[in-house]
Amino acid sequence: MSGDERGDPADGGRDPTGGDPLFAEAGVLNRTELIRRPELLEISTVPGSDRIAGRTEQIQYVASNIGPLVTNSEPTSVMIYGKTGTGKSLVSKHTSRRVVREAESRGTDVEMVYVDCAQHNTEAQATSKIAREVNKLAGEPESIPITGLGPSHYYSYIWSLLEDHYDGGIVILDEIDQLQPTEDANTLLMQLSRAGESEKTEAYIGVIGISNKVEWGDELNSRVLSSLGNEETVFPPYDADQLQNILSAREDAFHDGVLASEIIPRTAALAAREHGDARKAVRILKNAGKLAEQEGAEQVQEHHVNEAQMKAEVDRLRELLATDTPHARYVLLALAELTQNTDETEFRTTRIYDAYVEVCKQEAADHLKIDRVRDLLREHAFNDTVESTLESGGRAGGTYKQHRLLKDPAVVKESVMREM
Ligand SMILES: Nc1ncnc2c1ncn2[C@@H]1O[C@H](COP(=O)(O)OP(=O)(O)OP(=O)(O)O)[C@@H](O)[C@H]1O
Ligand SMILES: [Mg+2]
Questions:
Q1: Are 64 and 231 within 8 A, CB to CB?
Q2: Would the CB of 276 count as within 6 Å of ligand 1?
Q3: What are the pLDDT digits (tens) for 248-284?
Q4: Which end of the chain is more exposed for a tag (fewer CB within 10 A), N or C?
Q5: Residue 321 annotated in ligand binding
Q6: Full set of structural domains in the chain with CATH
Q7: Whole-number Cα distances in Å, 27 to 22, 24, 30, 388
Q8: Could you tell me if 123 and 151 are in contact, meaning their C-beta atoms sit under 8 angstroms apart?
């Protein structure tokens, strides 16, 4: 032990109860318990019917397209788009479960399989996952290798397992834009949604494709779109009232009297600020509760909510960046550097492009063409990390775009570096 450490005044000092003050300060001793049911504040929990608010229309939309399965009729596959936290995954799972249950009560055998395409991101991996899930649900009649087979073999398993054990199946392809290359997504959607038509299996298959990149639909070819029955919908962001209802339905996560009346409206208002994101709302409420507990407070107060909101911002940016491509991150980094190193806040595409090319040089990466960078900026604008405005003027009298970073550049840089 060094002399300095031994001489630390806190070391050996005592708090009023006679203990080492370090632990009182660290919030270990005077914690309060304010959260009664933490699972209700977990993002991964799929809330039951009584806790879902503001999505009646969307649930009905999915039910009207996938629902025919309950009477052993042909479903229509759908694509669902919408910003993050707008209930796409939740509504898809919730409605699919209800289809499965209703089918069962009518004597029809339907099962659902959920695939996170960010995890299973090629046609082979996704088909392997679907085949193994159906196999599991059917009681493991086959032994299917996780890898090593081509997609065509996995499709054969899927068709025969469905044919032998079920009247119908629902396949949810979440984060479908993560399938690489995009052609894999086209093929997968086509194979699944046209399986009946091409007589591969007699079981009806309803596909729900989900993406938080609205423009990704442009990547789908017209044959795929028509095999999806051209059905697509965009889930709008929640408004502050809907977020309030979502949070109120989980109020019992806290002990009685812990949430003062202004806490839920305040949290909802903060979460609705950029775009109404339910995940963010739930996360802020949970973190506010935890902060209050650590502080030994008897109630969750507004300053806990404000602090939790700041933390949620950073977490969300990290998540967004984690699924972005490296070049999407380089573009954001370029804009963050410009914002930090100049007095300006808005930059033209060409200027960002130059800064982006510099970033690529530093990263020893080949840079993309400017049109791709334009697309990436549009993607960032869609995710509310960047705001783009169309300006008219310029010498030739045409129009040009100006882009502004909506996040703290220091937070962006830190988050981007972490991913690189
Ligand atoms: N209508 C709702 N009622 C209650 N809770 C909701 C509702 N919508 C979303 N949530 C909560 O927010 C979380 C995130 O929602 P969900 O996963 O459906 O978002 P998403 O649209 O799929 O977002 P992403 O594009 O980021 O995947 C859910 O786990 C759930 O806890
Ligand atoms: Mg989702």
A1: no
A2: no
A3: 999 999 999 999 999 999 999 999 987 899 999 999 9
A4: N
A5: no
A6: 31-41+239-320 (1.10.8.60), 55-235 (3.40.50.300), 324-419 (1.10.10.10)
A7: 9, 5, 6, 44
A8: yes
